[in-house]
């Protein structure tokens, strides 16, 4: 299991947080957004899922991943 915290730009409200968490969960990782830190911590099985897939899922929602 990998546990990584990503910086995400553009999340300003709790709906944004929901979109990002939902998108990450959709691809099979768990997600917890910290709005105040502009970050999302993700946990995933690296044998099943790549970090790139998670980043793309977030970016597809319209947020920039650092
Ligand atoms: Mo409300 Mo969060 O438009 O983008 S969902 S600020």
UniProtKB/TrEMBL annotation:
Annotated HMA domain residues: 2-66
Domain of life: Bacteria
Protein name: Copper ion binding protein
Source species: Paenibacillus radicis
Origin organism lineage: Bacteria, Bacillati, Bacillota, Bacilli, Bacillales
């Amino acid at each position: 299991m990998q546990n990584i915290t990503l910086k995400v730009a553009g999340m300003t409200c709790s709906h944004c947080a929901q979109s990002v968490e939902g998108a990450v969960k959709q691809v099979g990782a768990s997600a917890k957004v910290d709005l105040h830190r502009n970050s999302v911590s993700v946990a995933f099985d690296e044998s099943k899922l790549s970090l790139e897939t998670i980043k793309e899922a977030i970016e597809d929602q319209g947020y920039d991943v650092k």
